[in-house]
C-alpha cells in the first residue's frame, strides 16, 4: 500500500482513505470505500489495475457518478475515479464527409457536446443535458430519440483488468439499446474514435434546440442519476410509471419526480435503500397495472434485486 501513497506524494494519483462515496455520485448517497484513487496517467492506471488483480482487491469504476446507485454499505476494495480528463479531442483525419477524432474516455460528456457545437460538428446533439463521462456513455450506449453514442464510434481503445490494452475496430463492436460489450466494471474505455459531421450553423442550432427541448420536462436543480428504468420495446417507461400513479411517491428522503416519473430525486438526505425500495415499488406498480417488467437503466453497484 505504501507505493500508492508514494504516487500521491508525486502527484501521479490522488489517494483518499475511508472516503464517503456520497461526494462522488450524482444521487449523493452511499457509504464508504477503503480507498478512492484518481490516477493522473495511463501507466499509473494500468499499474493500479494490475496490482488490484494480483492482490485480489475488488476494483470499482466511477466516472462522474451518474447512472449508478452506490449502496449504503459502501464498496469494498478500491474505487477508481476516471473523470475530468482535460485532454482535448484530436483530429485523426476524414472519412468521406465525416471527421474522425480521438477523444479520451474520461472527458465530461457535457464538455464534449459543447466543444462539438462550438466547432460546427454534428452527431452529439442527442447528448445535450446527459451527465457523465464519454466512457460511461459508451458503456451504457447513452442516447435519445433513436440516436446513440455507439452510432458515432469508429474504434475504441480499452484496457482489460489484467492491464492489457487493445484496440477494437468498429466491426468488432456490437452496440444495442442502452447496452454495449463494455458494461463489465473491470473493462476501462481509455479513448474512442468519434465520427462527426461538419454542419451549417442554422441546422446545428435546430437540432440542438430540438434535443434541448426533450430535457425540459426532466427535473432540474436536484439530485438524480438519470432515468431509472429502460424503455421496454414499444413503450415509454416514464409514461408507464406515470399511468401507474408513481409521480410524487415518497420513500424516506427519496421521491419520484413530479415532473418525470422515470426520475427519482434525493430530496431530503435519502439513503440508497430509500431510492432502491422506491424504485422497486414503482416497478411493481407498473407490472401490476400493465403487465410490463421494467429493467433498471441505472447500474446497481450493490446486490441486484
UniProtKB/TrEMBL annotation:
GO biological process: cell division; cell wall organization; peptidoglycan biosynthetic process; regulation of cell shape
Superkingdom of the source species: Bacteria
Gene3D superfamilies linked to this entry: 3.30.465.10, UDP-N-acetylenolpyruvoylglucosamine reductase, C-terminal domain, Uridine Diphospho-n-acetylenolpyruvylglucosamine Reductase, domain 2
Keyword Endoplasmic reticulum: no
Main location: cytoplasm
Catalytic activity: UDP-N-acetyl-alpha-D-muramate + NADP(+) = UDP-N-acetyl-3-O-(1-carboxyvinyl)-alpha-D-glucosamine + NADPH + H(+)
Pathway note: Cell wall biogenesis; peptidoglycan biosynthesis
InterPro entries linked to this entry: FAD-bd_PCMH, FAD-bd_PCMH-like_sf, FAD-bd_PCMH_sub1, FAD-bd_PCMH_sub2, MurB, MurB_C, MurB_C_sf, Oxid_FAD_bind_N
Gene Ontology cellular component terms for the protein in this record: cytosol
Enzyme active site: 178, 227 (proton donor), 297
Keyword list, A-Z: Cell cycle, Cell division, Cell shape, Cell wall biogenesis/degradation, Cytoplasm, FAD, Flavoprotein, NADP, Oxidoreductase, Peptidoglycan synthesis
Cofactors required: FAD
Compartment(s): Cytoplasm
Annotated function: Cell wall formation.
Family: Belongs to the MurB family.
UniProt protein name: UDP-N-acetylenolpyruvoylglucosamine reductase
Species of the source: Aminomonas paucivorans DSM 12260
Amino acid at each position: 500500500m505504501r507505493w500508492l501513497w508514494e504516487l500521491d506524494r508525486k502527484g501521479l494519483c490522488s489517494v483518499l482513505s475511508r472516503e464517503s462515496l456520497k461526494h462522488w455520485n450524482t444521487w449523493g448517497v452511499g457509504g464508504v470505500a477503503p480507498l478512492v484513487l484518481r490516477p493522473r496517467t495511463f501507466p499509473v492506471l494500468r499499474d493500479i489495475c494490475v496490482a488490484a488483480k494480483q492482490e485480489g482487491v475488488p476494483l470499482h469504476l466511477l466516472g462522474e457518478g451518474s447512472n449508478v446507485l452506490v449502496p449504503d454499505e459502501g464498496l469494498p476494495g478500491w474505487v477508481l475515479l476516471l473523470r475530468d480528463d482535460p485532454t482535448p479531442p484530436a483530429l485523426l483525419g476524414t472519412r468521406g464527409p465525416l471527421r474522425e477524432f480521438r477523444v479520451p474516455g474520461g472527458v465530461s460528456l457535457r464538455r464534449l457536446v459543447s466543444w462539438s457545437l462550438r466547432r460546427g460538428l454534428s452527431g452529439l446533439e442527442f447528448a445535450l443535458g446527459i451527465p457523465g463521462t464519454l466512457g460511461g456513455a459508451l458503456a451504457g450506449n447513452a442516447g435519445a430519440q433513436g440516436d446513440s453514442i455507439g452510432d458515432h464510434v469508429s474504434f475504441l481503445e480499452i484496457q482489460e483488468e489484467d492491464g492489457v490494452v487493445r484496440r477494437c475496430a468498429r466491426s468488432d463492436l456490437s452496440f444495442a439499446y442502452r447496452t454495449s460489450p463494455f458494461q463489465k466494471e473491470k473493462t476501462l474505455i481509455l479513448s474512442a474514435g468519434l465520427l462527426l459531421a461538419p454542419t451549417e450553423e442554422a441546422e446545428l442550432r435546430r437540432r440542438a434546440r430540438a434535443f434541448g427541448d426533450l430535457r425540459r420536462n426532466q427535473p432540474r436543480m436536484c439530485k438524480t442519476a438519470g432515468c431509472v428504468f429502460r424503455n421496454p420495446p414499444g413503450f415509454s417507461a416514464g409514461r408507464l410509471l406515470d399511468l401507474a400513479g408513481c409521480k410524487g411517491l415518497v420513500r424516506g428522503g427519496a421521491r419520484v419526480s413530479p415532473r418525470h416519473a422515470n426520475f427519482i430525486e434525493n430530496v431530503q438526505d435519502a439513503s440508497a435503500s430509500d431510492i432502491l425500495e422506491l424504485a422497486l415499488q414503482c416497478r411493481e406498480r407498473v407490472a401490476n397495472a400493465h403487465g410490463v417488467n421494467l429493467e433498471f437503466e441505472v447500474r446497481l453497484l450493490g446486490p441486484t434485486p
